[in-house]
Amino acid sequence: MTKVFLKKQIQNRVLLGHPWIFGNEVGEIKGDVVPGDIVDVHTHQGSFLGRGYINPQSQILVRLLTRDKSEEINPEFFYRRLLKCWEYRQKLGYVENCRLVFGEADDLPALVIDKFNDYFVLQTLALGMEKWKPAIVEALNRIFSPKGIYERNDVPVRELEGMEQQKGFLSAPFDTNVIINENGLKFHVDIVNGQKTGYFLDQQDNRREIRQIVKDANVLEAFCYTGTFSCHAGYYGAKSVLGLDISEHAVETARRNAALNNLQDVCQFQAVNAFDQLKQYTREDRKFDVVILDPPAFTKSRENIRKAVTGYKEINLRGMKLLNQGGFLVTASCTNLVSPELFLETIDAAAKDAKKRLRQVTFQTQAKDHPILRNIENTTYLKFLIVEIA
Ligand code: SAH
């Protein structure tokens, strides 16, 4: 087995549990470097640190899979890991739909698997994980006997690993428009053409948080995607709900979701640019009782954090201005480079400019099936805040 020896100065980080080893942290490599292959990682003095997969084409040279020297990486390894992931989700009560595997947080770097009842959607985002795709599919078959498995590897990040983007069946073909149950509602999930894996499971608990505040309210949801928050609002007793999204496909699905839950009279959707529409409503002095904002990630690179913050400030400022006194702003951010602290500061800055006094109702993060590793930064990626305009 090829051996990778780290430089002296970086070992603390890796020793403390971080699974990534960057190219510039490596002092010496003994043996062949075959992209995607399993290698052993040692300290500069030669003691064993862990075992993982290597890819010289990636900035992250090695991602560790295990720190147990006796643990072999083979199909059985992936079966054991997936079983462990499943036991954890079951323990926490995420049985029907869940993020079954959340990459690094489940000691399976660069692997994502979402479970939609009997259907599974998979992403292998690094070459070393891609190579084990057959073993992963086999493990899923063994544990779940699924009705279908699909890969949504149509993600640009794969190109950093020298891989192509692709999507397709990893099981016999099946009807990829599935319906899931969530919080007593039903939702269409378009596995092939939906965003990311088709559905945002990370907000599944947060959607319940609007239950009390939407009763009899006029609700506006911007960046509504398939209308999941909007439908929840309707279901929890809102007087009217207006959902906005720039994607025609999302809005169409949102309308189908409303109909599926018998909420078509309460929930209306429009395919528009939310930035423009929020501006327009401000000019018209429209008012709502609840405004929900869940925009896409505004940046994936550090250079653009300021720009992302400006974006958050703008939409939240507009959202606050559209609210009646005593109304509620429900606001989220999934940009992992914007920390919870920075997000709250941005909301405070928006409130100052809008001359509003905010009273916090709740501040939370992603659902528990997306675990947070305390020793890895940016894994608390979802911020979800409800404030009252006091
Ligand atoms: N709240 C949703 C997820 C929202 S994802 C849920 O829980 O399922 C962000 C959404 O913002 C995407 O559907 C995307 O199409 C939409 N979007 C991106 N830019 C937009 C814009 N300028 N105006 C309106 N919607 C936009």
Automatic annotation (TrEMBL):
| Key words, A-Z | Cytoplasm, Methyltransferase, RNA-binding, rRNA processing, S-adenosyl-L-methionine, Transferase
Question: Is-annotated flag, keyword rRNA processing?
Answer: yes
Q: Which GO terms describe its molecular function?
A: methyltransferase activity; RNA binding
Recorded protein name is 23S rRNA (Cytosine1962-C5)-methyltransferase
Question: Could you tell me which InterPro entries the record lists for this protein?
Answer: PUA, PUA-like_sf, PUA_sf, RlmI-like_PUA, SAM-dep_methyl-trfase, SAM-dependent_MTases_sf
Organism encoding this protein: Chitinophaga eiseniae
Q: Which Pfam families match?
A: Methyltrans_SAM (PF10672), PUA_3 (PF17785)
According to the entry, every stretch annotated as the PUA domain falls at: 2-87
Identify its protein family: Belongs to the methyltransferase superfamily. RlmI family.
Per UniProt, subcellular location reads as: Cytoplasm
Query: Can you cite a GO biological process for this protein?
Result: rRNA processing
**What Gene Ontology terms describe where this protein resides (cellular component)?**
cytoplasm
So which residues are the signal peptide here? none
The family database entries (SMART domains) matched by this protein are listed as:
PUA (SM00359)
